[in-house]
Amino acid sequence: MELLSTEEIPTKQLRGIVMKKALFLLPGVIAVMFTAAPMISTFNNPAFADDAPHAGKHHGEWDKLGLNDTQKSQIKQIRQDAKQKMDALLTSDQKTQLEQARSQHTKPKLALSDDQKAQMKQIHQDSENQIMQVLTPAQQQQYKQMLAQRQQRHQQH
């Protein structure tokens, strides 16, 4: 199979390829957002609707734990599994709203049902418990401190 350079692909076709790749990454974006959010209920809170999303802000925290390659791999898998489970809970309208909010760099207004909130909270808690099992006792203590600080910052907003 011969690979074509970008000059050989028509602009419309190239845009279509880029859009398909962007949609393929959407579940990852959803997982990062929900995994990083300590309180799911804030997505329905109008007070936070205009704030920029903070999901990527916590990425550097993982580096502070000094994870080895095996731990990184296991945690990545746990987070991917949680992302897939949470993505499956969203309706197509909610996925569209999430995509629009991301493109506009605003907090999504997903209007999650109580059942969705409860299920997402459970998925989040399960993934946190699994992550804790991957960490050493010293890393667990540091991770708990990071979560407490994150929750404290979140409550101040």
Question: What's a concise summary of this model?
Answer:
This protein is mostly helical.
Looking at this protein, list some descriptive labels.
157 residues; mainly alpha; 6 helices; extended
Task: Please tell me about this protein's structure.
It is a single chain. The chain is 68% helix and 0% strand. With 157 residues, it is mainly α. It has one domain (8-156). Helix 1 (11-36) crosses helix 3 and helix 3 (69-89) packs antiparallel against helix 5 (114-134). It is extended, with a radius of gyration of 18 Å. The model is unreliable at 38-57 (pLDDT under 50).
Explain the layout of strands and helices.
Layout: H1 11-36, H2 59-64, H3 69-89, H4 92-103, H5 114-134, H6 137-156
Helix pairs in contact: 1-3, 3-5
Percent in strands: under 5%
How many runs of DSSP E, i.e. beta strands? 0
Query: Given the structure, what is the number of helices?
Result: 6
The main sheet comes to: none
Rg result: 18 Å
**Outline:** extended
**Helix coverage percent of residues?**
55-70%
